[in-house]
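Researcher: Going back to the complex we discussed earlier. I've cleaned up the inputs and rechecked each line, so this should be the final set. Can you rerun the prediction on the complete assembly and write out the structure?
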Amino acid sequence: MATSAFGQARYPLVRPGVPLVFPRDHGAHPDFRTEWWYITGQVRDARGRAFGIQITFFRNRPGLQEESPSGFAPKQLLFAHAAIADPTHGKLRHDQRAARAGLGLAEVSPTTTAVHIDDWSLALEGERYRTRIAADTFTMELTFSATQPLVLQGDRGVSRKGPRPEQSSYYYSRPHLATTGTIAIDGKPASVQGVAWLDHEWSSEYLAPEAQGWDWVGLNFDDGGALMAFRIRLRDGGILWSGGSRRDPQGSVRVFAPHEVRFEPLRTWRSPRTGGVYPVAMRLRAGDASFDLDPLMDDQELDARPSVGTVYWEGAVRVRENGQPRGHGYLELTGYVRPLKL
Amino acid sequence: MTGRLLIGPILQHPGRSLLCVVAIALGVALGFAVQLINGSAISEFTRAAQTLAGKADVTVRGPRQGFDESIYVDLARRDGVALASPALEVDAKLPGREEPLRVIGLDVFRAGRLQPALFAEGADLLDSLRADTVFLSPAAMGWLGVKPGDTLTVQSGLARHGLHVAGALTGEASLGRVAVMDIGAAQTLFDRIGRVSRVDLRLASGVDVERFVAALDLAPGLTAERPRDAGTATDRMTRAYRVNLDVLALVALFTGGLLVFSTQALSVAQRRAQIALLRVLGCTRGQIAGLLLAEGLLLGIVGAALGLAGGLALARIAMEIVGADLGAGYFRGIAPVLRVSPVAALTFGGLGVVAAVVGSLGPALEAARAAPAAALKSGDDQRAFAALRPPWIGIACLGAGAAASALPPVDDLPVFGYLAIAALLMGTILSLPALTAFALARIPTAQRIPVALAIEQLRARPAQAALSLAAIVAAVGLSVSMAVMVSSFRTSVDAWLEAVLPADLYLRSSSGGDSAFFTESDQARIRDVPGIARIEFLRWQQVLLDPQRPRVTLLARDGVDLDAERRLPLIGPIASTDPSLPRAWLSEQTAAIYGFAPGQRIAVPLNGRLHEFVVAGIWRDYARQNGAVLIDRAIYTALADDRSANDAGMWLTAGTTSADVQSAIEAVTGKDAVEFATPGEIRAVSLSIFDRTFTVTYALEAAAVLIGLVGLSSAIGSQVLARRREFGMLRHVGVLRGQIARMLATEGFIVAAVGLLIGVALGFAMSLVLIHVVNRQSFHWGMQLHVPVAGLALFIAVMLMLSTITAVFAGRQAMAGDAVRAVKEDW
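Model: Rerun complete. Updated structure for the full complex:
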């Protein structure tokens, strides 16, 4: 079996042709170096106020103390980020947690989606994801129900991230998750509903060493269609790799070749906190279509240096095609302050 | 004019004035230094504890060996807890170093939010998680002389491990000497899998900390405290020791005050006519008294200022040399910065001034009271010193002292013990006229003229003799009491060391710290070393008997229950005990502090559970002030599930030398991994530490003796001055100068002998209070009374000689004028 070395640990590599099996593959793959469950969505409260929401759980195997009998040995690290984009507030409310897995205080299941760090949790029950986030200035208690089958990204779930075959991830998405629940900001609870998107991705060699970061977008179209696109940027400003897929309302999926996906910045925003300059408005060309992405608000930068050591922009966007509103989604911009390291 | 009047007399006797100043300064310096050092250490200790606890509201602590990590999990999940940060603290042995290094194993993800000072800024997260990486505080780096990138070697069990120094902690210097590493790595490295030793808790906003702590219901052996209270417990721990030193400082001030008294009395006698003249010229009594008091005040202020400066210097030097605990071993691994406390400066400076002013009060009032007309004539001696109070006050004082010595401690301090000593001292001094009269009446009348004259002189004026005696009695009393106490203590410690060190050779894994130990297989291998006839292993750790008090030492020794009678320094008989319960042998301190008696039951927390023992006997212990509980190691191993050992005592087969066994064991354990000591070496080191601890008392004894002699000289000098007319008359009637000198020598000898007699008696009484009340109530240890007969006899002989010489010398000086003028003075 092909592996990748880091520290004393050997990591398995992503290999094409190994079919994903559910529900097993909803769970964690602790042998791989990195893994995440990534929920982004847009919701409205009863008064019609729009919010962007992001809930992410990361798993990392640092390859340290793997033989240790200690319950504290950091064999698996868990991180969680949560953010609410509230245009009336003007910037993200976000919080994060980090822990080593173990002792029941932070755990991740290898059999289904079930991960928690203290009182932050995400779990799949049947076809419904439930999350509870108790951040310092807000709480979220949300349910995400599947309304469509999941989308295997890339080649039957193996998504290439670079020119070398091992630069790949296992990757599936769950668009159009019907979202209901409560978010409370500064102790004031509000019932919300909306639409969300979940990505589950794991890999040992995600990002090539020469890469600077990536741009990613996941769009839920109002007609029931869904589109995912990404590109990996090089440190010299070039593009290492691109990819994506589009599922039409009838359910047929088209996978884009690298040359079929292009991101064109329309407008940039400079973070007053980190100095990062982000292309917060983009024109996305995917296949023969072209979409304009417009942020819900400019400042959706998330400083995750205390947990995973990076700063990124994770923002709710509105989608237009030929000037017409087509739906909502999330745009992710990484590596704009410093090269991203996983 | 007033200035000249004030300074003049002081300059007239520069030696005496200087001594007054020095005596006051000594007391002020000692008290101030003790306060400064302790205050700095406590504040440093508190700051270190607070830095360690970071933003935590509550710290839960367990025994040295740690507690089960499931308790941490329960705490982390408890309602009201916002964040729980576990830590495993180990005092790690560093090969080749006496003092251990505190290694703190932390969970970077939790401690990073709660105790950010414990992490290096900008450090790679992975470095905080590696198995073989440590971060050092700046103080630890300085102490060890290592820098980032170096390797630090620590000992765990008998094995050595090299750790990569990845960086410096950003925390303030107040952290002290610590190393931080991953908690999982620390559990593995130090063989403490599944254990943590503290949990810092941040509570959710709105949770009442007191109520939370009250509702915690922790497992036996665990405590919860607020980090800001950490210094309080330590402060309490050192309190008895400090109060002891403070009392010594007060004693120095008292003798200083006494010296001022006798100096001023002499000065007043010399200036009698001058003072009377001032009165005649229109000075009021108040002005005279004020002038003399101002002289005392001046001496006091100069003494206090010198004392404060000296105290500061003393504190600096003491902290450099012996550390912030004055050699008593309370603070480890912290390097305090001297913090000057204005309150302490005002307190001890003020006390110095008060001592001087009070000392000059008596002479000042006497001088003011004297009628100018009578005083202008020479030799108005009787009235001047007649003010000594009626004897019943002295007797009442002595009675009060005896009664106070029977009273229990106040808040763990022997307040009444110290009061008893003060009362005995004051009572004796106040009773001196009566006592002297009593003693002089019993001296047979002599044939030779100078001696007969001397005896008659003294009998006629017992009050004056008493005055000469005051200083000498106080000095001798204090010296004798301390000498008897220290000698009793030292003899008892010596005997105790003999009793507790019966083996031929001792082996220990580490003198400090808890990372080095002998595993079961190490023990088996050491047991097999040829030449060892018998070996007993010892395991020690700390257990909590009462959450309000410091932990006591738990000692588990092989075969205790079999040979307790022969091998323990037992006090009292062995209780016949319920055979169904295991037996515990308590140190004297444990029995006194917690109120246990033989036959009673005691619950000892081991491995998170309370185990019942029955108190089989009480043994004497001078090593562990917070108490110790000794149990058989077989019982300990079964109850605590801990088979390792720290120390061993070995009996060698005939013909085997310690060196043989030493090298054979080192072949098993590795060189430098263990320490060896013969009973003789341990005894020598222990006694030298003992002697060092008491250096300050020896210095005070010397000071007291000097002050006593100077006091005697002043008193005799002032009387000789007052009696010049008498000497003139004696010369006039044909008594030779030499005969007068012999008369004075005899007077000095008799006064000194009476003073020594009374002083020695007082000293014995005070030493009994020191031994049976002050030491028992402060430190809960008893000792056998041991009188250093030869030393005391020598001391008495030397004092007698010095006193006689002092008397002759003082008399000569005072008689220097010629006889005719002396008689003429009596117009």
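Model: Worth noting: The mean pLDDT of chain A is 93.
Researcher: Good, that matches what I expected from the previous run.
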